[in-house]
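Colleagues,

Please find the record for the three-part complex below.
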Amino acid sequence: MHMLENFLWLIPVLPLLAALLSILVGRHRRSLAAGLAIGAMSISFLLSLGTLCQLISGSLSSWQTTFVWFYFGQTTVPIGLILDPLSAVMLTMVTFVSLLIFVYSVGYMAHDARFARFFSYLSFFAAAMLGVVLSNSLLLLFVCWELVGLASYLLIGFWFERPSAAAAAKKAFLTTRIGDVFFFLGIVWLYAKTGTLLLKDGGRGCLDGPQLALLVSQHTVMGLTVAAAISLLIFCGAAGKSGQFPLHVWLPDAMEGPTPVSALIHAATMVAAGVYLIARVYPLVSVGSHSALTVIAWVGAFTAFFAATIAIAQNDIKRILAYSTISQLGFMMLGLATGGVAVGMFHLITHAFFKALLFLGAGSVIHGCSEEQDIRKMGGLRKLMPITFVTYTVGMLALSGFPLVFSGFWSKDAILESAHGWPLSQGPFLMASVAAVLTAFYMTRQMFYVFFGESRLPQVHPHESPAVMTMPLIILAAFAVVLGFMGTPAWPWFQNFIEMRQVPAADFANFMEPAFLGTLLLSTLIVAVGLGFGWFLYGRKAVPAMTEPDVLDAASPGLFRVLAGKYFVDEFYEATCVRVHGLFARFCAWLDGHLWSNFISMIKWDVLSFARLSRNFDVAVIDGGFDSGCETIQSGGERTSQLQSGQEQRYLKWIGLALFLLLVWLFWGARG
Amino acid sequence: MNLSFLIPAIILLVGAAAANTLRNLVHCVLALTLAFAGFALLYFGLGAEFLGLVQLLVYVGAVAILIAFTVLLTGGGTAGEQTVLSPRWLQGFLLAGAMFLLLGYGISKSRFTAHAATSVRSYPVSLIGDALITSYALPLEMLGVLLTVATIGGVVLAIREPRQASQSVKVDQ
Amino acid sequence: MTSLTLYLLLAALIFAAGLALAVTRRNAILVLAGVELMLNAANLNFLAFWRFGQHPEALIGFLFVMFSIAIAAAEAAIGLALILAVFRQSHTINIDQIEQLKG
């Protein structure tokens, strides 16, 4: 049954090849580029599905392959791929959602001049992301991590003619880079301690028993175990990619990219990579004392709350969704920290589907409203764009956690339950609950602004999007509903699959457990409060016009200004970090211009003088010597030729003289 | 030092000296002939009669005549236009003198194992003939070839081209 | 002074005389004459050694001289033919004036 595993490497490589080929065939072969991307992704999806089925059927539990990348001296640097339930589930989700978004992009980017390049960037991103998922080596993971960041930069800044887009791409790259520096330190420390970067290597990997025991036994600053310290460093990288506070600032600005990019990267896959990373190294994070988990839980909970408060005051349709993503990522981190891999991953999977759905729906709205993104300028799209409206509603309800039917309810409920059951503190639970209320509230607000009421831009004639864009919406909506049933407490298939336990049969009796029932009711209450409040403020009468302040703004303008201004975090960073960096950059420029360039000039002078010296030596000594030698020979020859005077008698005299001398020599040698 | 040595020696020396110093070219040639004759006498004294006769026949009879002919053909009989000796004649005399002194020195310093006192024996010509035919057959043949070549070469060199009559006869006055 | 030494000295003297003749006289024919004198002096030298040396019955020196005379005669013939040819060319036998072949 290992045939499929031999093709495991194809899953990331095929999209990479598609990306390269798309670049090479030129910008005019649009259908070829799109076809290559979609074709490669389809094959990857089928392969991923195949591996998932194999794992489900139980013919395989966990499988890794390792090969050596390069040698230096006696040391080898191995990298490898791993296939276990965690990676199989993630693979399937990533390939499936990517495939749907690729299809969507055919319609969305149809009018763009750089259509082919867009698809090659998308394929490249998909290849890197799949590399992150499959990697069994922290080195390979880091390499693919950085490539994902690069792809994100290229895609956010796709419309680079807009200075805001270019700035947003740069901001995304730099902010995640800060997290990645700490991530790299963690990797280096881990390698130094354990001597390997393979995660699972038959007992020798850094997540295997002996290594973990070693890492737990040693202590470092502030009484942390080495394991916890490394976990926190790795979490810095995850925090950067997943937009946890304080490295969240790039995500809202990343909305400058095209909407499919936002859907793929900043909803479903790349931002989830941070969560996936923590899930992947979970044995390291959870071993020994729980200091790392505590930090992750608090950061996640705070991020969820923080971002949700900002979202209620935003007016850009995509920015609301961006802050919503940040908030949900906080939820995922909280789930990981308090409930384990299964809880966090379940919410990651369900969130991928309904957030991608919401973004694609927002893209459909923007496309239909001719690139209008301010919700205050939209309205009444319920009748004008019915399919979009229905699917968007499904997504919104899933996100809010509408009870029982939608997947978001089950996944968020699991998180709240584990947060409530966390022994250390109830603070995260409270923050998460409030965030959930706010989630339902701001989504309702958005819905009323965008879809209900009268159309505020009749001159544009908003129209429904073409089928190539609405089909993915419908498919995603279906999944947003269906996926939930894989993780209900009655039949916790997902949790058991991830943690590689036996999957029990459906048991509705689990519903009746008191603790669970309590959380169930609480979740329902949360949703009801949020939806109701939203309806109360925005649904009863028409939304305010552009010139009037928002309802909340009218209620408390100061607080609204703070929220709308995102707590001025960006401005704070601008004033401190960015300014300091600017000073440093100017200092380096001065140094370069004066010190180093003078140094280089000096070297240049030396080299030039040496060259001149060498040339003079060459001309005078070598050429001159050679010339004078030749001249000597020539003049000597001239003088010698004068011996041939034509006077035969003179020749005779010379002969006689020579004979004389020979005789002298002969007699001299013969004397005695 | 007996007479059979002394007289030819004197003749030789006189002839050589005369050839060196006489102005008239014909006189020089005659002096040379005398020297050749002196040589022949010396050969007789050494017991090489055959060679003495050959010397007389060849040198006196042929070479000297040849030289005389050439002198006449080139109009060398007229003398006295310029100096007899070439410029830088001193170098030549010095060279000759040095050569003689050196050779004399070498001769005097050498110790010869001489079988001087043996009487002069004459060897029959048949002995010479035998040696020529048997041991020295090759040199003899080569000599024949050489003489043939010399003859032909001499004719070729000296022959007058059949050109205009005015150009050919231009004896210098 | 043995006879041999006398003969050798005489031969050396005549050799020097021939050399003097060859290098000091202006006339080309006399140069040739000098060469002939030198050859004859050498012949005398050979004969002296033959006579006063070992194994005179082997006739080595004798035959050497014989060949030498023959060759000298041939050489004299050629030399004189050459002088004639040169004379026809340049109408002088003053070898100081025949100097076209110079470097």
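Chain A touches chain B through ten residues (CB under 8 Å).

Comments are welcome before we finalize the supplementary table.
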